[in-house]
Amino acid sequence: MSGQQTRQWILANPPTKDPILSGPNATFNLETTTLPSPGANQVLVKTLYLSNDPAQRAWIQLNTDPARLYTTPVTKGEVMRAFGVCEVVESNAPNLKPGQLVSCVPGWSEYAVLDAKDCRPIQPDEKAGIRPTHFIGALGGPGLTAYYGLVDVVRAQPEDAVVVSGAAGATGNMVVQIAKHIVGCRRVIGIAGGEAKCRWVESLGADICVDYKAPDFKEQLWKATEGFVEIYFDNVGGDILDLMLKRVKRFGRIAACGAIARYNDPEAGGLKNWMEIIVNRIEVRGFIVTDAITAGKSGPMVQKIVEKIKEGKIKIGEDSETVVPTRFEDVPKTWRMLFEGGNQGKLVTEIKG
Amino acid sequence: MSGQQTRQWILANPPTKDPILSGPNATFNLETTTLPSPGANQVLVKTLYLSNDPAQRAWIQLNTDPARLYTTPVTKGEVMRAFGVCEVVESNAPNLKPGQLVSCVPGWSEYAVLDAKDCRPIQPDEKAGIRPTHFIGALGGPGLTAYYGLVDVVRAQPEDAVVVSGAAGATGNMVVQIAKHIVGCRRVIGIAGGEAKCRWVESLGADICVDYKAPDFKEQLWKATEGFVEIYFDNVGGDILDLMLKRVKRFGRIAACGAIARYNDPEAGGLKNWMEIIVNRIEVRGFIVTDAITAGKSGPMVQKIVEKIKEGKIKIGEDSETVVPTRFEDVPKTWRMLFEGGNQGKLVTEIKG
Question: What is the ipTM score, two decimals?
């Protein structure tokens, strides 16, 4: 069989600020190519869903010392990297039959040839409400990030009050739920953008969720964190982090997970409140979920989460995903919704032609 | 005996930026008062030396939530607080005879009446080169801060390379020496202002000391930290901290000790490189030395330092102090040298009339 033809989005111009979606300086270019036939222990897969992750923005940043990156960057001319859920179309690997769904890294490509070892077979479970997309969401990177960050990195305990920013995001909503339903934290406070998202975060178990778009956001946040909090799980960085430095309790802890507020503009206003870290003896820990995965921790974490889903405690219903049916030529557009607060829960691109 | 007359510097106008030394908005006012006679278990002391500490700037900052301060602030109308070395003049306490030198908190006052329990008798040891001023320097707050921060807070080990900013300061020079001569760190890199200070820091054992005033400071720092470093001991905050976030190794640690670069201007440029904490899984720990003292750790720490002084490893010679003979009316002026980089080693005010 000859190679499969596919369209791919290629990184054409690594951006320094907002990604540019069209014109001569467009960040990505749509190209068509013919893939090689899969070799021994390789498979040809068809992309069904693409994962949209804030981290992808970091993978394409210009002017970053490669020694400081946590993963190989995507360089000019390469296919844009992305996690996804794919279906095996053709297989030279004994463990993967055609039709099998896998979680893998197809990139922004309709089809991809991958090593079988990089494709994790997944088993959706309709009765338990576990859909294929959950393997790039609640049971994938975001869910593991939430669990690892909260439980391992900042060692949340039942006596802790926890603030979570980006609480309506893919990771944030899982932090809220894990804090409440697995750790049993005494108080869980979300920060999200807009009334609807805040009410949704509260429906997941947050004691309160504060709307950062509200004109009196700071007052609301101060009230919600009266007496200060032991833990801040930071998904956003920027101004909200700066405020939270003033609301973490003496000897409190910060899980530094993400900084989406600055990904498109690293030169925007810097942090002013570092002194709080000193005076209040705050512990800050940066982390990347791949460390947990490499250390073989993901299995037991996923198991815990699945357990709570089956008990009906952790909710992964349709409102915990924003699945956007997307023509392949609009893949970058859907991805960019991440930076516009366009999603509730996991932002998933469903490839539709 | 009737009360002792004394001059005192009173906090008149808490500053928001640089302290103001004269004029109608002066930060401090010189006043004369008569002290009460010492009561039971109290002493009258005469101030010989005043300690100048960057932390004093934080004690008088306006607009800070008292719940976030690590110590009671000095409020308008109170005597400016300061550590010092005093001589007991009159005593109603059995353990303190007139003539005894004590380490205490006299404030900016020629004389003070203090509870005996707040006066720690000190024993200078001329043969070992231990002078009275060392009890507010190498064997006082700065020495303990250096030891606690490096050994307890960021757990320095022989296999670690350490960068220390403010390396020619009271705390910084002790961090350099403790890193080299007590922990035995593989590499110790200082950052200080000016050629003379840098060469002095190297004479204390630093493998290299980089001059932040040099036009090619960044290049020099990058070269000195090739391969990155495990630990950064931060005494200065601001731009140097921002640079160092890019030079701490993956899974490295930062001891957040001070931020003198911003004390007089908290609104100056904020930190831009927080992302490094995430991507490189950096651990940041703020700390305050009083925690170590309260926990009863200071005795063994001082003992370790004295041991190394007697072995000739840790140097506390006259070049490790800037003792400024000061008329009492110039006490604030001498203090302000701290913020101008005016001192090498501990900045001590010697009261001279």
Answer: 0.94
